[in-house]
Write a structure and sequence with these properties.
Blueprint (H helix, E strand, L loop, with lengths): L6 H20 L1 E2 L6 E2 L1 H5 L5 H20 L3 H19 L4 H8 L1 H18 L9 H21 L1
């Protein structure tokens, strides 16, 4: 059975995904505006093939979510975002603009980040109180104290 990913591994996955999402969704800025789009929007300009390529690229985020141990609900939300991005990108005329605006990879990376941060916030339960150790130490101290009083 596979071991759950460590916190360091999860953080490395998030770092890779944030870089990937920035590249695919917001690496190119339009001068004199705050608007950015990524290479996925450019690839999406190629009819059908570009949208399929974008869908394949988005699959990388889903694969990394699986590696990070994301829940089924998170992965289903990611699949929904991928579907919306794919279908929206296929629309004539407005599809290319939709690709530039929707940013499915950024959304999916944020979903995974929020999920992992919630997992890291949950503190493990405190260990149970060591009653047996307390009893044995009490007996030991009583014997030692009683023995010392007899000899002094």
């Amino acid at each position: 059975m596979a071991q759950p990913p460590t916190e360091a591994r999860q953080r490395a996955i998030l770092k890779r995904l944030e870089t990937f999402s920035r590249f695919t969704d917001s690496s190119i800025g339009i001068p004199f505006t705050r608007f950015k789009f990524g290479v996925e929007a450019i690839i999406g300009l190629v009819p059908v093939v570009g949208d399929l390529a974008g869908l394949v690229l988005s699959g990388y985020v889903l694969v990394e979510a699986q590696r990070a141990g994301a829940s089924k609900a998170v992965k289903l939300n990611m699949l929904r975002n991928m579907g919306v991005d794919f279908i929206g990108g296929m629309l004539p005329v407005v599809g290319d603009a939709f690709d530039a605006i929707f940013k499915a990879n950024t959304r999916n990376t944020r979903l995974l980040k929020n999920y992992l941060e919630k997992q890291l916030e949950i503190e493990p339960p405190p260990p149970p109180f060591p009653w047996v150790t307390l009893i044995w130490l009490s007996i030991l101290f009583a014997v030692v104290t009683g023995g010392l009083t007899l000899f002094l």
